[in-house]
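Example record for the data management plan.
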Amino acid sequence: MKKNAEVFILLGQSNAVGHDLPMQEKDVITDPMAYVYGLSRADNQNLYPEKLTFSGYQSAGMNLAEEQDNTYSLANCLAAQWEKEARKNPDMPDLYIIQIAIGAQGIGPGFMWNPDYPQQLIPGKLGVVRISLFPFTQRILSLLKPTFAQMGVDYHIMGVHWRGGEDDTAVQTPKSLIPNLKPLYERLFEMLRSSLGELPKTVLYQMRYGEKTYERPGTDNLRDSASVNNRLFAEFAEKYPQISLFDPFSLSLYRPEDPQTWGIFSPEDGVHYSAAANCEIAEKILAEYLADTSKK
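Corresponding structural encoding:
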């Protein structure tokens, strides 16, 4: 364990879980990593934790919320790439990953990311798991400072990646009501600031949907709603210097001639990132980090 560390925080819903992206056996991380650490559910999934216990990263059991393991999530892809780079580069700090995500959960009323969702923690797979994610995440993040101090490790928050919003646009919130989400996101940003001591670099993922994306009776067109939500995210990026937007169309995988998946999303629904997309995004995150540190 090195005496300096970077912390990567992944929050949201199914696209932060790596939903329905099972890893090939050769990519499953069974041996705890030497340069990447995480918070296992077994040791840390507690609604009122008093301390955090980091352990060598594995591809199973490290999402503190939903039980869907060994997926090509952004967290698992970044862990594998960081470990590989750190083995070659002795100056690389250790990476600590915090992943908290449950599929089909937005920040609007009734969803588990909503600040007023009833206080509870019922573990399990999607459909069973019930966690008040907002206060749970607040407690976890507020314990980072004392935990690292006890370990004698200096740390830096590399970034918070928010992969949420799809269900806010698709299910319970027609596009005319999306502006009502603004104060809820403001509370989310304030929670990050108060828990971490400052609002760190925060990345909001823009929504780009394919032609076959589902539409539910009685709701607005999903793509129209997503465009309104993207404008809300753009407002936040303009207001907060720490907030930036990620456009999936910036990936090399992007294929404008394929309006079903754009070369990025699952052909099943046009919503979920593919394994290749998550791996390329992880590559971009690592490359940007290495480029930034080389300038210092």
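Summary line stored alongside the record: The radius of gyration is 18 Å.
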